[in-house]
Write a structure and sequence with these properties.
Number of helices: 13
Oligomer: single chain
Order of helices and strands: HHHHHHHHHHHHHEE
Helix content: over 70%
Largest sheet: 2 strands, antiparallel
Distance between the termini: 21 Å
Strand order of the largest sheet: 1-2
Strand content: under 5%
Length: 364
């Protein structure tokens, strides 16, 4: 594989998760200000639709395939899982728990995506190969890192925090009830399931409708309609839709254009290029980015468990990605062996020994 082609998806996913992390930091700020999370989702998708629709029309008008009813149905469910429900559950987890606790559940997404991909044959596992064993090991290490982030805290250390900030954080933590944490945990588990499902649905959409801007714009439109309907059911007070300050307006615009627009386009492209497990494996980076911004810029406290857990997650991420890369190399070697003539005929390599890789979107 060409070096540039190999590194391009990695750079793309690092940039995507940096953009999503910035959006999460800003969203947490306006959630603390009292803006309803369902309204945030609705506004975010409206902005994303307005931004992506003209880009999709002019950029892909010559290459756009016919939009059929089955593709529209898949895009509808893609919006339901990856936009409406995922963002709703995640922001609801913010409400019942804390930002750090909620972001820790993002780290479970690569593992749940890997497990969900197996029965749908979007990801194959060959334990006899080194790449297959490495993927399993990386998934286990990622789970260990996620558990460390969630369960182990230690004594906090912080940069430039005042006594007022410390007292405020302690007051917030003491006000949390056990029931709230239980509900928040269940909601966040639901978030990991629906978010992982989005990667699998997007992998199928990318094969049948490979226009990234058009598919993301349609998905954002469906997400805006779905979240608006849900918002009107839950939040019937019209005053709840009012944005009161510049920070809320800037956050909604940024999260719509970057978070729900460009980042989803980037993820859709990476799903097509390298598969859903590769793409979701970068989601733990959001936790690291959020912790870094919170510590150095927002002067929030950081716990040793977050540092240790983040290091473990990075190690597991590297092992999983190395396993994926190893599988790609093994698959290419098998294909070359099948095509290489030996003694006047092709070498008969059993197809059962070939490791299917989800990244090759050009093949069903």
């Amino acid at each position: 594989m060409d070096c540039r082609r190999q590194w391009k998806p990695i750079v793309m996913m690092v940039a995507v998760n940096l953009g999503l992390a910035a959006a999460n930091v800003l969203l947490k700020k306006i959630l603390d200000g009292g803006l309803n999370h369902l309204v945030i989702v609705a506004y975010r998708q409206i902005i994303a639709t307005i931004f992506l629709a003209p880009v999709a029309y002019f950029w892909e008008r010559k290459s756009r395939p016919k939009l059929t009813v089955p593709i529209l149905c898949q895009l509808f469910f893609s919006a339901l899982t990856g936009v409406t429900l995922a963002q709703y559950f995640f922001l609801l987890g913010f409400e019942y728990t804390t930002a750090a606790f909620s972001c820790a559940f993002i780290n479970i997404v690569p593992v749940s995506t890997f497990l969900l991909a197996l029965p749908f044959r979007l990801e194959k596992l060959n334990m006899k190969s080194l790449g297959g064993r490495s993927k399993v090991l990386g998934a286990i290490v990622c789970i260990g890192g996620a558990l460390t982030l969630t369960l182990y805290k230690g004594k906090p250390f912080y940069l430039g925090a005042t006594n007022h900030m410390t007292n405020h954080v302690n007051a917030m933590n003491s006000s949390k009830k056990a029931d709230d944490w239980a509900i928040g945990s269940i909601v966040l588990i639901a978030f990991t399931v629906v978010w992982s499902s989005w990667f699998l649905i997007q992998a199928r959409i990318g094969k049948k409708y490979p226009c990234k801007y058009s598919s993301t714009a349609i998905m954002a439109l469906f997400g805006a309609i779905q979240s608006a309907v849900l918002s009107l059911i839950v939040e019937r007070n019209p005053a709840g839709w009012a944005m009161k300050g510049k920070l809320e307006i800037i956050t909604i615009i940024y999260s719509g254009v970057v978070g729900s627009g460009l980042c989803y386009v980037g993820m859709a492209w990476c799903v097509e290029q390298r598969g859903p497990v590769f793409t979701s494996a970068f989601t733990p980076l959001i936790q690291i980015f959020v912790a870094t911004v919170g510590f150095f810029i927002l002067h929030e406290r950081i716990y040793p468990g977050s540092v240790v857990g983040s290091i473990i997650v990075v190690i597991g991420l590297y092992i999983l990605l190395w396993g994926k890369s190893k599988e790609i190399d093994e698959c290419q070697e098998m294909k070359q062996a099948q095509l290489a003539p030996q003694d006047g005929h092709f070498d008969a390599v059993s197809p059962s020994h070939v490791i299917p890789v989800a990244m090759d979107s050009s093949k069903p």
